[in-house]
Amino acid sequence: MQNAIYVLNGPNLNRLGKREPEIYGRTTLAEIESMCRNEGGSRALEFRQTNHEGQMIDWIHEAIDDGAAGIIINPAGWTFTSIALMDALKMFPGPIIELHISNIHRRESVYHNSLVSKVATSVIAGLGANGYRTAVAAMKEMLV
Ligand code: DHK
């Protein structure tokens, strides 16, 4: 969608609310989507989640081809493993906010080396579900 902000969510985030609540909290992805739409106001928002890497790559290509204004992405586990995801994001001309519910830098070392951070405009980590609201607000500021 032209000029939309794409909010893209990676694997296992469909389980938010019951997935390791001590780390990710109890807010569901549907509740997070509502938070994003409230914060976004009149700005068009594409809010999606997938457990399939190829689908995520296709959505990034869609964002590129459709002239999306910006991408907010929680890449989840792909953050640390996917060169394909990094390469796709490299092609996006607009601002990219990498988002993590948890502070990945305070967790196990496997969560410390983000490939996405090498192409992201900014990174938000550790604000819990509110990080999504912060990311939408920050993206709107970037797009003024
Ligand atoms: C979510 C995941 O699923 C993990 O694989 C990431 C991220 C952290 C988050 O905090 O939102 O490492």
Automatic annotation (TrEMBL):
Q: Name one Pfam family in it.
A: DHquinase_II
Residues annotated as the enzyme's active site:
24, 100
The record's EC number reads 4.2.1.10
Which NCBIfam families does this UniProt record tie to the protein?
PRK05395.1-2, PRK05395.1-3, PRK05395.1-4
Q: Please list the residues that bind substrate.
A: 74, 87, 101-102
Q: Which family does it belong to?
A: Belongs to the type-II 3-dehydroquinase family.
Name this polypeptide is given: 3-dehydroquinate dehydratase
Keyword Lyase in the entry? The reply is yes
Q: Under the GO molecular function aspect, what terms does this record hold?
A: 3-dehydroquinate dehydratase activity
This protein's assembly is summarised as: Homododecamer.
Reactions it catalyzes? 3-dehydroquinate = 3-dehydroshikimate + H2O
Pathway involvement?
A: Metabolic intermediate biosynthesis; chorismate biosynthesis; chorismate from D-erythrose 4-phosphate and phosphoenolpyruvate: step 3/7
